[in-house]
Amino acid sequence: MNQREKLTQLLLKQSLISLLKEKNISQISVKELCTSAGINRSTFYLHYANAYELHTQLEQDIIDNANNYLEKIEANNNAKLYVLAFLDYIKKNDELFSVMLLTTPNNTLFSKRLLNAILMNIDDHLQLSVPKSKKPFIYTYLVNGSLAILQMWIQERFLVPSDEMADLIFSLADHSMLAFKSKD
């Protein structure tokens, strides 16, 4: 992909984020996206079939970027450092995560995919000893609980420091996994 294509895709994604602050993806037209990005419709259709495809690509980019960011973290088998790094990443990308985790009502699936990818990243790097048969249940519980905590943290404008949030999330997750382990 050349620089012009990258710039076009970046402009479209930025326009989408801006429009998602005001309306749902189902209410955003290709024409609006193009006007906001300053490109013509034929250029849009060279890259995407519709606004939903652009939205899906944006979601995947966020997940990939978060995973790439976390892969660079030297956690030395310390899951709390991964959680803290992820919270700092959210804070650095405040506008993006505010839109994607708070203002877009249909993004529950994206939120869960994002958090599940982060949990898998932690699990892959730290080899958490979670019973394989119970892993899907544990992850579902952790993803839903963590999502609610993250949404509240963003809504509160990061009132609680990242390290305290990481301690809270890790503590809750750790206690949950211990409960499952003790029943094996």
TrEMBL record:
<keyword id="KW-0238">DNA-binding</keyword>
<dbReference type="GO" id="GO:0003677">
    <property type="term" value="F:DNA binding"/>
</dbReference>
<dbReference type="InterPro" id="IPR001647">
    <property type="entry name" value="HTH_TetR"/>
</dbReference>
<feature type="DNA-binding region" description="H-T-H motif">
    <location>
        <begin position="29"/>
        <end position="48"/>
    </location>
</feature>
<dbReference type="InterPro" id="IPR009057">
    <property type="entry name" value="Homeodomain-like_sf"/>
</dbReference>
<dbReference type="InterPro" id="IPR039532">
    <property type="entry name" value="TetR_C_Firmicutes"/>
</dbReference>
<feature type="domain" description="HTH tetR-type">
    <location>
        <begin position="6"/>
        <end position="66"/>
    </location>
</feature>
<dbReference type="Pfam" id="PF14278">
    <property type="entry name" value="TetR_C_8"/>
</dbReference>
<protein>
    <submittedName>
        <fullName>DNA-binding transcriptional regulator, AcrR family</fullName>
    </submittedName>
</protein>
<dbReference type="InterPro" id="IPR050624">
    <property type="entry name" value="HTH-type_Tx_Regulator"/>
</dbReference>
